[in-house]
Amino acid sequence: MSNRMWGGRFAEGPDAIMEEINASIDYDRKLYRQDIEGSKAHVRMLAERNIVSGEDADKIAAGLDKVRAEIEADTFTFSRALEDIHMNVESRLAELIGPAAGRLHTARSRNDQVATDFRLWVRDTVDTLDGQLTELMLALATRAEQHAGDIMPGFTHLQSAQPVTFGHHLMAYVEMFARDRSRMRDARVRMNECPLGAAALAGTSFPIDRHMTAAALGFDRPSANSLDAVSDRDFAIEALAAASIAAMHLSRLAEEIVIWCSAQFGFVKLSDKFSTGSSIMPQKKNPDAAELVRAKTGRIYGGLTGLLVMMKGLPLTYSKDMQEDKEQAFDALSNLSLALAAMTGMVRDLTPDTKRMKKAAGSGYATATDLADWLVRVLGLPFREAHHVTGRIVALAVERGIELHKVPLADMQAVEPRITDEIFSVLSVDKSVRSRVSYGGTAPANVRKQARRWLNALKRE
Ligand code: ARG
């Protein structure tokens, strides 16, 4: 049998393989809510403009509500022969209300319909991600305030560099996720134009009101060019780009958690709720949630590159290639959402071992810069010379296998005679972090202020 929706000119139905490659219902059923909302807005507008009767419009709207209820009650039978969510919904509508259902598709095509549905879904998802990023920022800033003064090593090249505080480290991620959130919000602003009414590609001869449908669906305005409206997917690509950057940030934090959880570091313990054991090694507690957050990044980037590559060679306007946009975007954005939830849970529950962190911060000559700064401040040495003098003292410590503050004063004076025992006061990690009072620096008072500023701002939203 040929397709009921478009089979007028067809004598034969499709090959089974054709049906399989053509059908998108297995994944685009996710758009049912958006599809029904879009259709209701469309039919109300058609009635308002006297393109369909008020009576038919009422019937159609009520029928669409019924279809939605069936889908939500899991009593709806999806059919692959009907290809996609749009034709599944419309076909059921016809079964429920009869011939009036055929009037719904007046002045509309699946091309503007799918562009609208997908935009609505991406917009909803971006709003959800925005809220989840906010939750994660709150969790991080809350922990940062608690640990504003707890010292840990700061790293470059994963080598001990200078002492910082755990709170400062967590607040670095708050700044990153804040930018991710603003990228989501920017993407939303640009995506919020309504393609509905562009019809197949050229617009329509019916006297439709595109401003009315745009407003009904919460869009800022109808899209200005009908060809652009049905053929671009940059709104999804932009959301995926923002998602990819957020995933990259999540992955770095996840990687740090994996490192911090190792017995060798032992900086944090994850709660049992966010760890797993090994079926052979009874002692194991593995940071699987963090590893999976790190891994999700791959498929999120995959979604972005998948869409970019799929779109790059398509002449205007719609080509069926574009049906492949949804599955990848659904997967990428849903997995980002899951990764955000998992990270927020881990951050809320983790227990830092502040003693161990502080001990590690004091090793590895992490206060060498403080020593050099003292030589500049107190003895007036140029920084380059102070750096050299400090390097020689560090070499002495390395040679003897002792920490910097254990090098005897006489040995330091052999390198630079003007050094006094005042030097030892800057070699402690506490002094070091407390001295970093420059704007954005790691001094605990700074960190506390930053954490409170963010907490207040986020709670006020
Ligand atoms: N299922 C299609 C998609 O997802 C809907 C649009 C089909 N339009 C068409 N002219 N075949 O892109």
UniProtKB/TrEMBL annotation:
Location of the Argininosuccinate lyase C-terminal domain: 365-433
Keywords: Amino-acid biosynthesis, Arginine biosynthesis, Cytoplasm, Lyase
Stored SUPFAM superfamilies: L-aspartase-like
EC number(s) stated in the UniProt entry for this protein: 4.3.2.1
Chain ranges of the Fumarate lyase N-terminal domain: 8-302
GO process annotations (BP): L-arginine biosynthetic process via ornithine
GO cellular component, one term: cytosol
Keyword Lyase part of the UniProt annotation: yes
Pathway in which this enzyme or protein is active: Amino-acid biosynthesis; L-arginine biosynthesis; L-arginine from L-ornithine and carbamoyl phosphate: step 3/3
InterPro entries recorded: Arg_succ_lyase_C (IPR029419), Argininosuccinate_lyase (IPR009049), Fumarase/histidase_N (IPR024083), Fumarate_lyase_CS (IPR020557), Fumarate_lyase_fam (IPR000362), Fumarate_lyase_N (IPR022761), L-Aspartase-like (IPR008948)
One Pfam family this sequence matches: ASL_C2
Localization: Cytoplasm
Keyword Nucleotide-binding among UniProt keywords: no
GO molecular function per UniProt: argininosuccinate lyase activity
Reaction catalysed by this enzyme: 2-(N(omega)-L-arginino)succinate = fumarate + L-arginine
Protein family membership: Belongs to the lyase 1 family. Argininosuccinate lyase subfamily.
Protein name, as recorded: Argininosuccinate lyase
Species: Stappia albiluteola
Classification lineage: Bacteria, Pseudomonadati, Pseudomonadota, Alphaproteobacteria, Hyphomicrobiales
Gene it is expressed from: argH
